[in-house]
Amino acid sequence: MSTYKPHEIEEKWQQYWNETGANVTNEDESKPKFYCLEQFPYPSGRLHMGHVRVYSIGDVVARYKRMSGYQVLHPMGWDAFGMPAENAAIKLGAQPAKWTYENIDFMRNQQKKLGVSYDWDREFATCSPDYYKMTQQLFLLFYERGLAYRKNGAVNWCPNDQTVLANEQVEEGCCWRCGTEVVKLDLEQWYFKITDYADRLLEDLDQLQGWPDKVKTMQRNWIGKSTGAEVTFEVPEINESLTVFTTRPDTLYGVTFMVLAPEHPAVRKLIAGKENEQEVTDFIERIRKESDITRTAADAPKEGMFTGAYARHPLTGKDVPIWIANYVLMDYGTGAVMAVPAHDTRDFSFARQYELPIVRVIAPAGEDVDVSAEMEEAFTEDGVLVQSAEFDGTPNREALVKIADSLKEKGIGGSTISYRLRDWLVSRQRYWGAPIPIIYCDTCGTVPVPKDQLPVLLPEDVVIDGASNPLAKSEEFVNTTCPCCGGAARRETDTMDTFIDSSWYYLRFADSKNDEIPFEAAKANKWLQVDEYIGGIEHAILHLLYSRFFTKVLHDAGMVNFTEPFKSLLTQGMVLRDGAKMSKSKGNVVSPDEIIEKYGADTGRLFILFAAPPDRDLEWSDSGVEGSFRFLNRVWRVVEANVELVTSHPAVNVSDSDAKELNRTLHATIKKVGDDIGERRQFNTAISSIMELVNKIYAYPETADRGMFAHAIETTVKLLAPFAPHIAEEMWRMIGHEDSVHHQAWPAFDASALVLDEIEIVLQINGKVRDKMVISASATKQDMEALVNENDKIKELIAGKTVRKVIAVPGKLVNIVVG
Ligand code: ANZ
Ligand code: ZN
């Protein structure tokens, strides 16, 4: 008897798969394609259990699809640019490249030890010049299409990371990476025009049937489409006009003041020469430094100041004082608000605070409201218009359209749409990223680096001290010649946001060796969309929104024939221990190496897949891991004990009732496991059904058909293959096969096996259960009565009594009433 020794067999089979190219993409046009992708990791150093979870999920799907007759693309790579490499350089004096590649080697080795079936021939790291040359090509494509531009403005700056951040990378006012509070700075930066795609990014969410609703909702809210109107207010004293964005043009007659964002460009002119000029200027400087969160939080104190200037109400001609306040943001709508304190909560508290008039223009329908009565709070519900000239009595929903239309007629406004989404700030003042391929020339201006001069390589002899952008300090890098005129010129020293690298990597896998272009259209169109994409919920907006945007741009450029990159999305839950997320800082980490060392990779994978549905948080449990290990041993023992029988492939004869029952369980399991992996992605229930099957195998009597028994054991090995690939391979060979279990066809499901032809009924006397009996499922009432009369136990019990009535319920019971 050999015992299950995971270490011996795992290493052996990993080597075998590697040598035989078992996991190389099986391109075969006669088969349907399937692209299974797990979000590629940042090479931070070591894999954690969260990684193991994602890869285990992906591998089950990929292996199942291969066995189900698909050509499967299942690649892996490295999201290898970014801050940690630079921080390591500062702390440890290591070169970012060296540090990164060492981590990649280590982590790749860990992935291999897990037995994940990646096609390593397609591997790449985004920090390699081969890859970032293509990232630079794509930057230039965006530039040519007018989608990459430079602009000056207030940007988010992380004082710790010494770089700017995109809006999506600011979480509750703090840097997404290091948690430092973000400040606002005025800088000239590169942007991608994602706002041009706002509508399509929103509309196409409806196509994404395979995405969690939660993620779609988050994207929808982030894009933040809002339908409203623009209204223009003249400001005679500066001979200019101010335009506001409002979702409530129906409240126009209730405007009692106007509020501009302190950064609004008109403010300077409004206060010029006024006695409070200095005071207002100081105020502006102070507010600018506040984060948007502080400024807009509902309970945050509102702060404002009168500019001393007045606008003219477009309909009444009345003077409207112009204020500035922290609660109005420059980068939403137009940065200017018509304040209606009677019907807007923020305006109401501001008006109360600064003693500004409050004028009611909407009253609850059917109520007689005294319009001069003081209001206790803003009235934000629907109603009918009052104090609104010719619109009095009009329901406000109707008035909304009517007033917008009348503004349009008069040429002072009209309906419009506003988005919360801002353009994507893509330049970073850091070293470890793809250099932006742009040159500045005094004569020719901004000049893109010609394609044949790509990649713009990162220089290696740089000083990385965290104080300022290393590239800007490298004379050798900065000074160059202009590609247009040959004169002296300077290179752009910012690098690209690493989210650009990851916005197109899934396309590169289709053609990862191409050194001319990012990828061939035909290859991308063959493999994409990604059929199953697996990754963390933390990318619900960031990476997933950017990737969708990239795909649409590449579609418009004719480079791909699809508009959405990820057909189906699975967001896996966290791995917890003692109720908290596993993390170094909490000291509750279980390392993948530890588990592989103690139990083998198959046990680790099986536990992780069994312990929770993939989208839920998973609580680590040592006894759960033990349980998985015991289960694999249990399977091993039954295979091992029956090697000779199974190898001889005895004829299957499903005629006795035990064989029928085992056959029924077997096919129920085949169906369940297939549906659970292929459709429902519920690996935990798939595994528990295999466990039940194994129990049935153990309980199968020796007297029942041996062929069925052998067949069930052999099929169990196949069903287990996607979950525990090494042990399945080993057992498959033990039972006499020469080829890999992973190249077998997935067991075919036979629906007829599920039809029960025998059932169990209960036998009662005066309503009390006395015995059970197995009979034909198609037995009629008469058949049942006849069968009961043959039952020895019943016969004994009713001996000498008078049978008054026999009640037979087909499929269930027979009740004998005796007196
Ligand atoms: C007048 C009004 C009356 C408003 C009323 C609301 C209620 P959403 O729905 O989120 O798009 N607003 C416009 N631009 C702003 C800015 N830059 N900063 C802060 N607030 C701004 O919000 C649109 C509403 O938010 C607009 O409609 C405007 O106030 C305010 F009874 O205009 B409303
Ligand atoms: Zn030039």
From TrEMBL:
Transmembrane parts of this sequence: none
Substrates-to-products reaction catalysed: tRNA(Leu) + L-leucine + ATP = L-leucyl-tRNA(Leu) + AMP + diphosphate
Coiled-coil boundaries: none
Entry-linked InterPro entries: aa-tRNA-synth_I_CS, aa-tRNA-synth_Ia, Leu-tRNA-ligase, Leu_tRNA-synth_edit, M/V/L/I-tRNA-synth_anticd-bd, Methionyl/Leucyl_tRNA_Synth, Rossmann-like_a/b/a_fold, tRNAsynth_Ia_anticodon-bd
Enzyme class: ligase
GO biological process: leucyl-tRNA aminoacylation
Entry protein name: Leucine--tRNA ligase
